[in-house]
Specification:
It holds the Pfam family Entericidin. Keywords: Cell membrane, Lipoprotein, Membrane, Palmitate, Signal. InterPro entries: Entericidin. Belongs to the EcnA/EcnB lipoprotein family. This is Small secreted protein. The protein is an all-alpha fold. Helices cover about 95% and strands about 0% of the residues. The chain has one helix and no strands. The termini are far apart.
């Protein structure tokens, strides 16, 4: 019985991890876009100097 409960818990854990992948990937893209904006701004400042 304990083994079955462990398997079910592991399945729910994997399901949660898989659903979080899209969220983390989306957050990574947002951070990347923000980094690109900062880099562009820094390059603009360098050109003005």
């Amino acid at each position: 019985m304990l083994k079955k409960m462990m398997i079910v818990a592991a399945m729910f854990g994997m399901l949660g991890a898989l659903s979080a992948c899209n969220t983390v990937a989306g957050m990574g893209k947002d951070v990347q876009t923000g980094g690109e904006k900062v880099q562009d701004a820094a390059q603009d400042v360098q050109k003005k100097m």
